[in-house]
Design goal:
The protein is α/β, with parallel strands linked by helices and about 170 residues long. The chain has one domain: Rossmann fold, CATH 3.40.50. Helices cover about 35% and strands about 15% of the residues. It contains 5 helices and 6 strands; from the N terminus they run E-H-E-E-E-H-E-H-E-H-H. The chain has helices at about 15-25, 55-60, 95, 125-145, 155-165; strands at about 5-10, 30, 35, 35-40, 85-90, 110. Strand 5 (about 85-90), helix 3 and strand 6 form a beta-alpha-beta unit. About 40% of the residues are buried.
Length: about 170
């Protein structure tokens, strides 16, 4: 079985894209091996950007490894030695509207928009609830992706399938 490389993009690469990367990597290994390898990046991460601590807390509470997560620019994945991407998914509306770098191999692309949990104001508990809700919404869509039969993940079908998942069906 071929492992599909999936890149999740957001503006700062601190919340939604990090949650998506960690969750898909956690879900990707099954009885038939690793079907997906997830990565994340941002179109314009701030200087010294780090993953949002509340996002890391929610992931750890769900039993998901966060030790390898870091915020980085999408330019990292446009370099010649970068992993080849099969699917590039924007998870915030800002990144979806930006001109992306050229991705070698013309990967399938899709936009799966989620509200920014780091923009929620209120108590720490309110903010944690926002991160938990975002993680849950991402998990529902990723479960649909992970459960897809192999024929829906072939390069010729991947573009159509990824965009259908943005509508909640495949």
């Amino acid at each position: 079985m071929t492992t599909l490389n999936v890149l999740f993009l957001c503006t700062h690469n601190s919340a939604r894209s990090i949650l998506s990367e960690a969750l898909l990597n956690h879900m990707a290994t099954g009885a038939s091996g690793t079907r997906f390898k997830a990565f994340s990046a941002g179109s314009s991460p701030r200087e010294n950007q780090q993953p949002n601590p509340l996002g890391l807390q929610v992931l750890k509470s769900a039993g998901i490894d966060t030790s390898y997560l870091s915020s980085k620019s999408w330019d990292e994945f446009a370099k010649p030695d970068a992993p080849h991407m099969d699917l590039v998914i924007t998870v915030c509306d800002n990144a979806a509207g930006e001109v992306c770098p050229y991705w070698p191999g013309q990967p399938a692309t899709a936009h799966w928009g989620y509200a920014d949990p780091s923009a929620v104001e209120g108590s720490d508990e309110d903010r944690l609830v926002a991160f938990r809700n975002t993680l849950y919404m991402i998990q529902k869509r990723l479960q649909l992706l992970v459960d897809l039969p192999a024929d829906k993940l072939q390069k010729t079908m991947l573009q159509h399938t990824a965009r259908e998942l943005s509508q909640g069906h495949a």
